[in-house]
Amino acid sequence: MKTVRALLIFCFIVVLSASAIAQFMDVNVEISNERMPEKERNDLKTLEQILPPYFENYDWIDNKYGIQIPFSIRFFPQSVNTSGFERVFTSQVFISNKPGDQRFLEKTFKFVYNTNDPVVHTDMPHSLTSTLDFYAFMLIAGELDTYEPLGGNNAYEKARDIAMRAQMSERPHGFKRRLKELDEILQIRDYRLFKYHYWSIVDMIDQDETKQISEVIDKALKCLDDVFAQNTRERYTHIFLDVHARELAKMLRDFGNEKQRKMLIDLDPDNEKIYKAIFKD
Predict the structure, then answer these.
(1) Is residue 158 part of a domain?
(2) Which among 140, 149, 170, 264 counts the fewest CB atoms within 10 Å?
(3) Does residue 250 lie within any of the structural domains?
């Protein structure tokens, strides 16, 4: 699917070389502002409306694969404090791409937002836009990992640069934790490679090039085995498996062997019922 999509987009680029392809599309922003005073409710409604174009109308990377990521951000503001000319909101925030295999949750996201201040892209650290930019690059990096092995490295480093600069600013709150989460993902190399192998199989099926699928299944399962040898409850891998369990089971049903199917169940017993049900079809 990803290779086919990239090839189609490449054709469009050849025909319409001047056209830019947005890295984000169908960005859905929801701000639950029931707990806020009336003025803040109105101002947060404005923020809700201006954030989708912030992501969609900006060139984040040299988009050689033509990626287009639909995702959602949900804010749950808990409080607001005014100090001088600044209003500081404290909110929970949940960020997820459309499939749900990339998810980020913050329970105490503190950001400054005044309606007179434009929400724009800048290299200067800012509690709101630096955080938005950090997660934009995290989503892009996770997506690029599915196109080539560890393909998201450069985007992850862009996220790191944003977080490092913000951590030295006047409002460093949250960026130490964000850097920790970034480092956790980078350390789980086999999780990232597993995602690449999974989507390679999807591409091979879409292009009816199935001879090598069993070999790629072995590589994917080896990555899973290596991840869970270090931590059987590794969170990011389990999120990916939970989202794609049915599709993965169909791959092994149609193109795998009994040994591979048994290995998958042993590695991911949380989804055993799904796997067994599909293997019986």
Answers:
(1) yes
(2) 170
(3) yes
Domain count, the chain: 2
- 76: in domain: yes
Residue 25, classed as helix, strand or coil, is strand
Beta strands per DSSP E along the chain:
24-31, 69-83, 86-97, 103-112
Sign of CA dihedral 224, 228, 230, 234: positive
Question: At 209, is the pLDDT very low, low, confident or very high (cuts 50, 70, 90)?
Answer: very high
In angstroms, rounded to a whole number, what is the distance separating the alpha carbons of residues 192 and 200?
13
- Range(s) of the domain holding residue 150: 21-187
First-to-last alpha carbon distance for the chain, in angstroms, is: 24
Check whether residue 230 and residue 119 sit in a common domain: no
44 and 181 co-located in one domain: yes
Q: Are strands 86-97 and 24-31 parallel, antiparallel or unpaired?
A: unpaired
Whether the full predicted model's pTM is greater than 0.90, yes or no, is yes
Position 126, amino acid: H
Residue 100 · residue 78 · CB < 8 Å: no
Question: Residue 249 in contact with residue 262, Cβ under 8 Å?
Answer: no
Chain CA centroid to CA 249, Å:
23
105 forms bridges with which residues in the sheet? 94
248 inside domain: yes
Distance in angstroms (rounded) separating the CA atoms of residues 16 and 19? 6
Instruction: Encode pLDDT of 77-110 as tens digits.
Output: 999 999 888 899 999 999 999 999 999 999 999 9
Distance CA 88, CA 78 (A): 11
Name the residue among 243, 239, 261, 242 with its Cα closest to residue 252.
261
Name residues whose C-beta falls within 8 Å of residue 156's C-beta, 6 or more positions apart in sequence: 137, 138, 141, 182, 185, 186
